[in-house]
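User: Show me a protein chain along with its predicted structure.
Assistant: Here is one chain, sequence first, then structure tokens.
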Amino acid sequence: EAAYEQACLFDIKKIIPIYEALYGRFCRMQIS
């Protein structure tokens, strides 16, 4: 259980910066 939770948290921490970068780029494209 704990190992599975850690794996999920690790994936989220890996994915979020990528998602934020893509989302930020998309927002800037929309604004300009």
